Amino acid sequence: MGTRFSYRKLAELTDRFAAAATDLGVRVQDRILLYLPNSPQWLIAYLGLQKMGAVPVPVSPIYPPRELAYLLNHSNSKTIICADTNFGYVKEVLAETRIERIIVTRIADLLPLAKRFFGKIFDKLIEGSVRREENVFFFRRLIAKDRPKAPRVEMDPKKHIAHILYTGGTTGFPKGVPHGHLELLSGIVGVREVYRSCIQGSDHTLIMPLPLFHMFSQDMVFALGLHLGNTVVIAPKPNTDALLASIQNYRGTLLAGVPSLYRQILENERLDSYDLSSLRYCWSAGDILPLEVSSRWMERFGIPIYQVYGSTETVCISVSEPAKKPAPSSVGRLIPTRMAKVVDPETLQPVPPDEAGELLVSSDYSYPLGGYLDNPAETEGTFVEFEGRTWCRTGDYVRINPEGEVGFVDRRSDLIKHKGYRVSAGRVESVLQDHPAVVAACVVGVPDPIAGEQVKAFVILKGDVRGVTSYDLIKHCRERLLPYEVPDYIEFRDMLPKSKVGKLLRREIRDEEKRKWGGA
């Protein structure tokens, strides 16, 4: 709501929160669940907890009670920081968790009094009902009191955890990923160093519409925002018109998004009414950026969309170089703090140069107790030891050319085995999305006793399109794909499953098809 915070004010509020948390009984390496939407409170709590040596555990603020209870118990969090709008879910799971204290904040807590007043009068602020209880504390009151600073904590990079992030799991519940302080900083500093020469400190404004509990968002906010002294505009949620207004009103020069967000911007009927001429650098992560989207963006705004590639397990892996236009399918070069190998996924032996294989990533800064939190089975399948170091199996198929450029082929789980060939789901999706009538596409393999898997596409058409059939789309694909890559089936849908950060969830579609074909 247009309220600005200086770095001095942010530091003061961070110190106050660290001191307040210490007074409440939070101790070094205690785990605290951040169940908050994007807000200044999120940043203050995250930094304040790390400053006092505690471990923030950021999660999606829209998790329902079942997942919330799991996350609280699995992370062994005894403190939760939530918004008043999801306080009801917290109360619902208290009996089945070990929660000792709840810190509640309203989204408007840090707004000036006048803005809070007019926000209520004009019904601009959604508020939840919170009752005063013995173990419930209010964020605004905690940071209002001037307290002695929290004691300085010497962090041991070989022992202390910086934060725990959660990522998708094969068992239906998310997997916890602990990062050490050096590991976390190595990714942030790696991104910063690639762009330091062209993004000078304090000259830029980063627009951040993505949720802060995601590793990509943290990389961008800390690497190109706080580390370089730039302004960061945090959006509570990714509303396209609000995002476009923020770029215009704050003269945003930097933008971080996911492919679906860039497509929504390009498809926005009111795009021409916004002035986005201030944009200088844009980044995409989380999924394959369709060539059609990047080409349209370049044509419309005259600037490329750069790639950031990484995972929750490895933090950042590679970024596009600012001095050159990103090549199709390229996800840039390795950041200076990362090492990589491309191997045969069955033998883990290196593949010949320029040949596709599974990407393994390592770093000198990896957390020594790495792996998934209390999940040895998943850890054993993802983290492997050889050559005296730990390597993370990304599950992604890539090529690395002699210049060190990483070319993304597909996620291992998204490669379709069709008649002895490996078909890239992402490549087929990209071709489908090049069709002028297609908004989005999802491609998966469906079981077939002869071919192994058939290629099936799920497609969303633009709302004003009429008369486009599966025959038209298959003809379009035949002109652009190899014969074995052309979809065998096309199904039209009104929507496709997306994650909380806008990433296409092929796994849900794939599981749905397996159940369907398994029962046939």
Can you walk through the features of this model?
The protein has 520 residues and is α/β, with parallel strands linked by helices. It folds into three domains: 7-154, Rossmann fold (3-Layer(aba) Sandwich); 179-410, 3-Layer(aba) Sandwich (Rossmann fold); 419-518, ANL, C-terminal domain (GMP Synthetase, Chain A, domain 3), CATH 3.30.300.30. It is 30% helix and 26% strand. The chain contains 15 helices and 24 strands. The protein has helices spanning 7-24, 40-51, 65-74, 87-93, 113-121, 139-144, 181-195, 215-226, 240-250, 259-267, 291-301, 376-382, 425-433, 470-478, 506-518; strands at residues 31-35, 55-58, 79-83, 101-105, 136-138, 161-167, 175-180, 205-208, 231-234, 254-257, 281-284, 305-311, 315-319, 330-334, 339-343, 357-362, 383-386, 389-400, 405-411, 415-418, 421-424, 438-448, 452-461, 489-492. Strands 8, 9, 10, 11, 12, 13, 14, 15, 16, 17, 18 and 19 form a twelve-stranded mixed sheet that branches. A five-stranded parallel sheet has the order 2-1-3-4-5. The longest helix has 18 residues, at 7-24.
Low-pLDDT sequence parts? none
Q: Would you identify the CATH H-level superfamily of the largest domain? A: ANL, N-terminal domain
**What composes the largest sheet?**
12 strands, mixed
Instruction: Supply the CATH architecture of the largest domain.
Output: 3-Layer(aba) Sandwich
* Radius of gyration (Å): 24 Å
Distance between the termini: 53 Å
The number of distinct helices, counting runs of at least 4 residues, comes to 15
What's the multimeric state? single chain
Decide which structural class fits the backbone.
alpha/beta
